Amino acid sequence: MNVTTVNVRGKSIEMLEAGSGPAVLYLHGVYDVHTFQGKPFPFHERLARHCRLMMPALPGCGTSLGIADITHIEDLAFHYLDLLDALKIKEATIVGFCLGGWIAAEMAVRNPERVGKLVLIGAGGLQMKGALNADLFMYSQNRDGGVMLELRELLFGDADGKQANEIVPDGRVSVADEVRRYKGLTIAGRVGWEPPYFLDMKLQSRLHRITAPTLLLWGERDRLIPLANGKAYASGIPKTSLQTIKDAGHSVHIENPDECLKQIVPFIETGALPKTKARANV
Predict the structure, then answer these.
(1) How many Cα atoms occupy the beta-carbon half-sphere of 133 within 13 Å?
(2) β-strand pairing of 23-27 with 92-97
(3) Where are the domains of the chain?
């Protein structure tokens, strides 16, 4: 992938870009921010074979500037709408994970005409009774002598798996990895710190404004943003399909890229939504 910079209203934004074809804007979450080492996950590499994939780093992440301007989730929504202007893209497919999914939803309710197709992967922004979002900030500080098992359990279905241990390793990590994690948590904290976490009280009542066909992907074992919140997105967005991935946790696109791409690629290419298959008893 090529590393580029984009000027967004006077601020330099780092962006990875690869592939050709329809424009797809990928908005990252807190714990896939380490993509910005120039080493994307297999999910991103393979997605780029089917589109022009653009992956900007959130303000304050990578070398992107502008974090001081961010105090609310709508600041990030307008930031990325300005980014589309800077890239001279009138309409894009937006794929967002976790915090990035929440931002994508906020963009789509404000300027629905800019979003041709929408993919939300374990998106924040909602909070259902009895299915509260977990406190990512508390778990991120709970090292327990260097053991990060609880955080891995929050982010992955298989806390002992290779991907989980690479992203959230036990013991000390490199300074560069520690800085990346700190930056991701810092931007997340600016918009989602106050309990109830990762919530916009007004978003659910605005979901009807989303005109784009929307694919929702959720891990059945998501402990950070429970599946009930995915179902709430599905009930509020007019044209949508909720697909659950068995045995996967929050970071479903990292744990099971094959299944995610099987859903996303045909959707990007045709706009046709698969039939919802979220199990009623989950």
Answers:
(1) 25
(2) parallel
(3) 2-270
pLDDT of residue 277 exceeding 70: no
How remote is the C-alpha of 182 from its chain's centroid? 17
- Residue 147 pLDDT class (50, 70, 90 cuts): low
Q: What is the rounded CA–CA span in Å between residue 160 and residue 257?
A: 18
pTM over 0.85: yes
Q: How far apart are CA 167 and CA 90, in angstroms?
A: 35
CA angle 192, 38, 1 (to 5 degrees): 110
Could you identify the residue written with the tokens 């800077």? 86
Q: Are 119 and 267 in contact (CB under 8 A)?
A: yes
pLDDT category at 175 given cuts 50, 70, 90 is: confident
Can you read off the two tokens belonging to residue 199? 């919530």
- Cβ neighbour number for residue 159 with a 10 Å cutoff: 18
Query: Helices 73-86 and 99-110, interaxial angle, to 10°?
Result: 70
Closest CA to 243 of 101, 141, 120, 161: 120
Using the Cα atoms of residue 261, residue 262, residue 268 and residue 273 in order, give the sign of their dihedral: negative
CATH number of 2-270: 3.40.50.1820
Which tens digits make up the pLDDT trace of 28-52? 998 886 555 557 789 999 999 999 9
Side chain identity at 42, as an amino acid letter? P
Rounded to whole angstroms, how far apart are CA atoms 78 and 80? 5
Q: From residue 32, give the alpha-carbon distance in Å to each of 81, 98, 265, 279.
A: 21, 10, 20, 27
- When pLDDT is cut at 50, 70 and 90, the band that residue 282 belongs to is very low
143, two tokens: 């090292």
The one-letter code for the residue type at 238 is P
Nearest-angstrom CA–CA distance, 222 and 198: 15
